[in-house]
Design goal:
Blueprint: H1 7-30, H2 34-37, E1 40-41, E2 46-47, H3 55-66, H4 74-83, H5 87-96, H6 111-121, H7 126-133
Antiparallel strand pairs: 1-2
């Protein structure tokens, strides 16, 4: 014997699929796409408009990111402190290429910690001078 559904049962069955679908469509319509999120990084509160990063700054970090994880990327990382002019610029470039600092997730970038080795060796580089101005020098001044 086949199970027959009454009109009320069909309304419940259809409603159980349609209502969640409509809710998902509404949520998706407010969800920002990648083009809308490139201007600001809500996690760190640092602007991430990569187009404002200087070519030399970005190139040194792309070079560092291309070096295999089991090899040292010291040379391009030290140069990045001179090519990038501010901590914000350096962070934008590193967040675009977190592999340069041995990370996969841009949210794992910590400028105070990540700049410590670089600025310990190159404290007069523009990024390190800016980091000192911002009070991020606790790991290399002391």
């Amino acid at each position: 014997m086949a199970i027959r559904h009454t009109p009320v049962q069909w309304t419940v069955i259809i409603g159980s699929f349609v209502v969640p679908l409509v809710v998902l469509v509404i949520i998706a319509s407010f969800w920002p796409d990648d083009a809308e999120t490139t201007g600001t990084d809500a996690v760190a509160g640092i602007a991430t408009d990569i187009e404002t990063v200087g070519a030399g700054c970005l190139e040194t970090l792309v070079e560092a990111a291309s070096i295999p994880p089991d090899q040292a990327a010291n040379d391009p990382l030290l140069r990045s402190a001179y090519e990038c002019k501010t901590v914000d610029e350096w962070v934008m470039a590193v967040k675009a290429h977190p592999e340069a600092m041995g990370q996969l997730d841009p949210a794992d970038i910590d400028p105070e910690y990540d700049l410590s080795g670089i600025c310990f060796q190159s404290s007069q580089a523009p990024v390190c001078i800016d980091a000192t101005r911002l009070g991020l020098d606790t790991y290399w001044v002391g």
